[in-house]
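To: structure subgroup
Subject: Chain for Friday's discussion

All,

I'm putting the inputs and outputs inline so they're searchable in the archive.
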Amino acid sequence: MSVHKNTLLLIASIVWLAAGVNIARIGLEAYAAGHLTLLNVVLSAVVGIVFWSFIFGKLVVKHTARITGYEEERHFFLKFFDVPAFVIMAVMMTGGISIRAFGLAPEGFIAVFYTGLGCALALAGLRFARMWLREVRVTRA
C-alpha cells in the first residue's frame, strides 16, 4: 500500500477534484431548481475566491512542500494529508451532509455556498495535479 512520494500529489489531486466536482454539482443542481440570479452567481464567486485565497490555495502549497520534502521515496498512500487535514475534511463532510440531510439551510444557500466551495475545491485538485506534473518532470530530469 505504499506509493512513490510524487504519487501522493496525484492522489491528493484526485481526491480534491472528485470532492470539488461533486460539491459543485450539488450547488448547480440547487441553482437549476430556481435560484439562478446574478447576485447568487456573484456570491458563489466570492465564496470560491475566499475559500481558495484563505484556505485551499495555502493548503496545496503546505501539503506539496511537506510531500516533496520527504526524504524516503515510498509512503503509505494516505500520507497525501496529515492528521489535522483529515480531521478538517471529516468535519466539513459531516457538516455538509448534516446541513442537507436535516434541511438546516435553504436551497438558495446550498446553491451559492456549495457552488463556490466546490469550485475552490476542484481548483485545489487541479493545482495538486499541476504540482504532481512538475515533480514528475523534475524527478525524470
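Points worth raising on Friday:
Helices lie at 5-35, 38-68, 83-101, 107-140.
The chain has one domain: 2-73+81-140.

D.
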